[in-house]
Write a structure and sequence with these properties.
Order of helices and strands of chain A: HHHHEHEHEHEEHEHEHEHEHEHE
Oligomer: homodimer
Shape of chain A: elongated
Largest interface: A-B, 40 and 41 residues
Helix content of chain A: 40-55%
Largest sheet of chain A: 5 strands, parallel
Structural class of chain A: alpha/beta
Number of strands of chain A: 11
Strand content of chain A: 5-15%
Strand order of the largest sheet of chain A: 2-1-3-4-5
Distance between the termini of chain A: 80 Å
Radius of gyration of chain A: 27 Å
DNA sequence: TGCACTGATGGAAGCGCTTCCACGTTAGGT
DNA sequence: ACCTAACGTGGAAGCGCTTCCATCAGTGCA
């Protein structure tokens, strides 16, 4: 059964629709008795006014932007989301933020279709999902501006991401400068489950730094697995079992770095005295753990991405300036100078 | 200038509005030339079809629920939000989630007004904000069902929260069972900046356990300050400076527990060998830190709250069953049995 | 008694779209 | 030559509201 309209209410209350509307809007000049009649009719029918009709009629439209994010178990999305919020606030909250979560990578396309279908959104921020050409077309056809926010740059203008290679270089360089010469890389498989070559790019930075310093790394020093603390733990165990274990580890994310640290401690060794560990991201956790890492200003990235999107929405034809987040080495307590025979 | 409508497009293209609509909907039976005319008119005018009019006309309405949250710097909101998402997914994503952030507690009322005004939302989840009677009336008047999700129970039916007193009791009891007799409490001032008596309730649980075990605590053992790691650090310093420092500390949140631990270590003492510390919440961080704490199943709370809200929205008159999250002691590495003279 | 004014009320118009029906127009069949 | 079907097209109706204008009854005043 369709939900009742003000016409139903008017009929039940024995008044005109104008009067009903007036009651609904707390307008003056409705007699108390009439008001009571209307109110009780509303109650009886369980009437709720349609927000859509109201918006159309008043012409007041609030605009929505969507953020499509993985079902964020990973802290980095949280931090980006915070930046997104901040950008929205700085824009006077003119836009509502609709949060879409993708539980599994496969369902991403389905979600996107639903979003376009619904047309609930004026613009879309897509975080850490590989946007296929087909999907781009879909969004363009629906003329929904979008910005991608991820670990990896597609080279497009509407993409906010750090320079992963540079980041990998910075991390590895730090270890090399500390005179480590046995440096392992712990990262995701190439590409990861979302189809991103993040790990590969950071690895390339690692290779590039190693090459620049003239250090050769055996293939066993490159350990790839699924993302997460657990997998990193196992990989680190493998590394420790090597005839010549590394003296330093570059983990492609802070979470994985923590996994490595736990494995090292479990083996009765100390960080950084025996093995140095550097991560990547600088999530909030890292501050507490005291992890040395490469900060990619996640919050700032979120901020920049949303700012870009809002610029696109509010100045449709204008030239939009894109800023990219900076990378920065943050030295804390999990790395130290290599000491031989100590 | 108002944005162009399909009438404008039709006029510019020299066709009828029906044809424009057909082009817009990729309907068949439009000749290629006509289609091209319409498309170019759309391009020229920068036309974008109104989603509101479309919704009204098609009758397809997607529904929105809002979540009003503090500008979540605190990890506990993130975890709750995850549960909220899960509940939404289990509901086939029939509802979109609009995220509202309150930057400062003072602006909460303003936000709420805007939300009601906008009428963008069918239901509202209010997290960790004290909902005044006035605000309840506002929401009721707008007939927006809402659920509050916070640390503290108001006794209302639409409130999901843990039993803080019980939690305080559990934490303290754990320390007492470990034969500690000098137990301090570190918490927020009563009430905290959001007007919540969370700290007071947990403190009451502490007092109750102490009384049950016949242990008397000096007033200096009760340390209250603003929320956060920093403040807890200072409070712990004060405790350590006491003639008879406590042998165990119950911090009302994990973050504050971490602050205490840092202060203890800074003073050259060890946790748990010299002083045991127990927290409250079991945020993700605590797993990494190895903190003993009282788990309040934050994610589950979020889940339950959203589930309750969705039940209210989908079965308006039905009897709704409310579940409350359970509390659970999680023993990790920051507490141990009291050893005198060791 | 008549007039102007006020307050309460009914309902048409209009918001921008979709959809359906009606109206050519053309091609194919007899 | 006529009829039918199919195709392309225009535009009215209607979605559920708000708002404005018209109406009507009542009131005060000359």
């Amino acid at each position: 059964m369709p939900s009742p309209t003000i016409y139903d209410v008017a009929r039940t209350a024995g008044v005109g629709i104008g009067t009903v509307s007036r009651v609904l809007n707390n307008s003056t000049s409705v007699s108390p008795e009439t008001q009571e009649k209307v109110l009780s009719a509303i109650r009886v029918l369980g009437f709720r006014r349609s927000k859509v009709a109201r918006q159309l009629s008043t012409g007041i439209q609030h605009r929505n932007v969507g953020a499509l994010m993985p079902n964020f178990t990973h802290p980095s999305f949280v931090e980006r989301l915070r930046g997104v919020q901040l950008a929205l606030q700085d824009h006077h909250n003119d836009f509502n933020l609709i949060l879409y979560t993708v539980s599994e990578p496969d369902r991403c396309h389905e979600q996107l279709l639903a979003i376009v279908e619904q047309a609930a959104v004026d613009g879309l921020l897509i975080a850490t999902l590989n946007v296929s050409g087909e999907q781009r077309d879909l969004l363009n056809e629906a003329s929904i501006p979008f910005v991608t926010l991820s670990d990896v740059c597609t080279g497009e203008l509407n993409c906010i991401s750090p320079d992963n290679m540079q980041g990998g270089y910075i991390a590895t360089q730090h270890l090399l400068e500390l005179e480590h010469r046995h440096i392992a890389y712990v990262g995701d498989e190439f590409p990861n489950m979302y189809g991103f070559p993040t790990s590969e790019l950071r690895y390339k930075g690692y290779v590039s730094a190693m090459t620049d310093y003239g250090v050769i790394h055996p293939p066993e020093y490159v350990c790839l697995g699924t993302h997460g603390e657990k997998a990193a733990y196992s990989l680190m165990e493998q590394l420790l079992a090597l005839p010549e274990p590394p003296t330093a580890v570059f983990a492609m994310s802070d979470i994985q770095a923590v996994g490595c640290i736990l494995a090292i401690r479990e083996a009765g060794l100390r960080v950084p005295e025996d093995i140095s560990v550097i991560g990547f991201d600088d999530v909030q956790l890292s501050r507490y753990v005291g992890l040395t890492t490469v900060r990619q200003h996640l919050e700032q990235s979120g901020y920049l991405a949303m700012q870009l999107l809002l610029d696109m929405l509010t100045t449709p034809d204008g030239v939009i300036a894109r800023q990219l987040p900076r990378l920065e080495l943050v030295v804390r307590g999990t790395t130290q100078r290599y000491k031989s025979l100590v």
